[in-house]
Amino acid sequence: MGSIWPERVLAELRLPSPLVRLADDRLTRHGLSLMVKRDDLIHPELPGNKWRKLQHNLAAALATGQRTLLTFGGAYSGHLRATAAAGHHLGLTTIGVVRGEERLPLNPSLARAAEFGMRLTYLDRTAYRAKTEPAVLDALRERWGDFYLLPEGGSNAAAVLGCAELPGEIDEPYDVVCCPCGTGGTLAGIAAGLPPGPRALGFAVLRGASFLDADVERLQREAYGSGSANWSIEQDFHFGGYARTTPELAAFADDFTARHGITLDRVYTAKMMYGIYALAGRGAFPAGTRIIAVLTG
To answer: For residues 271 and 180, is the Cβ–Cβ distance under 8 A?
Structure first.
């Protein structure tokens, strides 16, 4: 893994990512314990599941001699920003296909991607929904030349292999590993990498994301030839949809930071953590359950 990266990147890398135990009476009163896997601290420019999803993809691109990466994302995509950073450090050309119309000035996420040298292009929402169709990809190749294709969110078989390495870093006993779900790659990998006994629980951050079940199954089949039955997805904690929030979620996240000194982003990890506490209050976890929550960065 380390051989493709320059020393300046490896010097800032924190693997295994820290595992921190939290004391919280809202969980202990139900007989539950919680640890957080601080994947958000893996690397300042390639945090969390971004590092795990990209590492095998980047190695594959370099092994084939490909020097251009093209990928997709929304206007606030952390995946676009991380891909741009990775390309910058490895001397690769990066192209980001953004959902929607161009809006100037660029928001901080896209501005940072551009600073790393990513070339930004845009697809209207209708065209973006067809982004995996041959006609759309052919048009992109005609414009940009040949490229190594990274799907939206970086979720493909290579990403699953990277995320499957996470459970092997955990040296404490546990029963369930929780993670937020956008495209399903992180959950597919974590579940595939679990030892016998524990299960994985995803929290969908999109509204109407029942399609994620099929996507997780497909990703596991593509990576390993078969799926696993040790995972499930909660669909009730999206708070209105992707990148949407409510005063209730914001208040929960602020209170969590005040209690534990850990900042939760509103798009992904705050929704997961809110869901964990809500399920605990409903008695969804048996007493004695040891929970690990992955802060995906």
So the answer is: yes
Q: pLDDT (tens digit, 9 = 90+) per residue, 142-198?
A: 999 999 999 998 999 999 999 999 999 999 999 999 999 999 999 999 999 999 999
Amino acid identity at 273: M
CA 152 to mean position of chain CA atoms = 11
**H helices of 178-225, where?**
185-193, 212-224
Dist. CA 176–CA 230, nearest whole Å: 10
Q: Do residues 19 and 35 lie in contact, with contact meaning Cβ atoms separated by under 8 Å?
A: yes
Alpha-helix residue ranges (DSSP H) falling in the chain: 7-10, 25-28, 49-63, 78-90, 108-115, 125-129, 134-144, 157-163, 185-193, 212-224, 247-260, 269-281
Q: Determine how many CB atoms are found less than 10 A away from the CB of residue 115.
A: 13
Specify the pTM: 0.94
Each residue's pLDDT tens digit, 44-63: 999 989 999 999 999 999 99
Name the 3-class secondary structure at 289. coil
Cα 18 to its chain centre, rounded Å, is 17
Q: What percentage of the chain carries pLDDT values higher than 90?
A: 96
